[in-house]
Amino acid sequence: MAALEPSKRIQYLFKVNPTAILQLGFWVLLSIVTMTVDHRYRYLSGVRDVLATAIYPLHYLVRLPAETKSWMNENLAGRGALLEENARLREKQLFFDVQLQKLTALEAENRRLRSLLESTVNMAERVLVAEMLAVDFDLYRHHILINRGRQHGVYVGQPVLDQQGVVGQIIQADPFTSTVILITDLSHALPIQINRTGVRTLALGTGNFQELKLPHIPNNEDVKIGDLLVTSGLGGRFPPGYPVGTVAKVAFDPGSPFASIVAKPVARLDRIREVMLLEGGADVRQPAPTVKEPEPIAKGLAPTVKRPGTARPP
Amino acid sequence: MTGDPRSGGWIIALSFLLAFLLGGIPWPGWLERFRPDWVAMALIFWSIALPHRVGIGSGWLVGLLLDVGRGALLGQHALAFAAVAYLTLQTYRRIRVVPVWQQTFSVLVFLLVEQILVFWISGVIGYPPKDWWYLAPAVGGMVCWPLVFIVLRDVRLYFQVS
């Protein structure tokens, strides 16, 4: 620019491209169209599939350093450490075996009692293990990406768990990956039941990994800190009986008809590595048999299923 | 300058790819909130350096791929990036002549525009940001700009991308 006079130089600095605004308008319109179509309809899922498959290798590339580290940890561990771990795992295995024996007996008993009550319950769901791809999304949306997709039988609405409890559900299944919405996402609501009392309500996400809101419980309801929340099976997505969270805070405000109750999810939502996808089968869509009156044959059992608390479930 | 005016397109693509990968790496502790949007910064750099090659259309395309990669609404980052590329194209002559530390202020403005657009759209579809921290990545980007600028400039000169 050395050849230009000073005034020309200033003009040059402030020169604008007159067609740029037209270009911008075009691209903005196009993105509004794609966003609307993506949000309201499902026409773009094919496009998304193609693009998602194209960038699938990238997710693995992102994971490479972490993978390498864990591979080195596994392969370069000393013999002593391995023996120690082995002993620890064996001990754990023994412990779980004993528990499992009890569980088998209980399960058999449960099935017998249920057959007495003539109610259905889904037994023996199959699970599919998936790993989380180490990609962070938006801080404000609790979605995670996992390395199983439609090719592995994943479908939209499939329940996702981890070792401790309910994690969320699939909201989008691509060919090789899928997106999970966590139960703490702002737009997620989960039908639950308080395990101790049997009260049914909804657990709403708050956008905070440590909190679920239970906004529809009346003030006079029997809720204590530490109560376990389990899925109620209503809504047809999650099978009943899986742990969701524990009640962490109970506050009664005399001015409002509902108590303000906060629960903490039992799944470690902010540090998930592996999740399990439940292959629920057809019978998850049946409502839970909780409201059914005992048949005459099971009259002797009736006192055990009576639930304390006077308020009606919402 | 090399004879072929279209040389080194793969360098540009590669830098966007690396920026995307870098975006997947979390930062420790409280710094996490300031983790900048590397892809947007790469876009700003290339549209300052090569406005005739990287413009509104390429910004839109990169944003669309980012949307797929992050599972966002298709077109959310695309719109924001097109706007950032537009702003950069209208001001690159002035940005080029000032020292790097002064460029950071322009970059801050561009990144703020990007964040606000992205979060407006999130708000419209039902995910309003909870607090003002959602603007923090723009500040992080401002702090990291000299690093991005120097690295990408050297890469550009080394591979003679023009």
Provide a descriptive summary of the structure in words.
The complex is a heterodimer of chains A (314) and B (162). Chain A contains six helices and twelve strands. With 314 residues, chain A is α+β, with helices and mostly antiparallel strands. A six-stranded antiparallel sheet of chain A has the order 1-12-3-4-5-2, with no helix packed on it. In chain A, a hairpin with a 5-residue loop joins strand 6 and strand 7 (200-205). Chain B is mainly alpha-helical and 162 residues long. Chain B has one domain (9-159): Arp2/3 complex 21 kDa subunit ARPC3, CATH 1.10.1760. Chain B contains six helices and no strands. In chain B, 44% of the residues are buried. The mean pLDDT of chain B is 87. The interface between A and B is large, with 46 and 43 residues.
How much of the sequence lies in strands of chain B comes to under 5%
Low-confidence segments of chain A, given as residue ranges, are 281-314
Largest interface (CB < 8 Å)? A-B, 46 and 43 residues
Helical residue percent of chain B?
55-70%
Amino- and carboxy-terminal Cα gap of chain A = 75 Å
Tell me, what is the CATH class of chain B?
Mainly Alpha
Sheet with most strands of chain B: none
Structural class of chain B: mainly alpha
Shape of chain A: extended
Question: SSE order of chain B in H/E notation?
Answer: HHHHHH
Overall geometric form of chain B: globular
* CATH topology tier name of chain B: Arp2/3 complex 21 kDa subunit ARPC3
What is the share of helical residues of chain A?
Answer: 25-40%
CATH architecture assignment name of chain B: Orthogonal Bundle
* Helical segment count of chain A: 6
One letter per element, helices H and strands E, the order of chain A comes to: HHHHHEEEEEEEEEEEEH
* Main β-sheet, spatial strand arrangement of chain A: 1-12-3-4-5-2
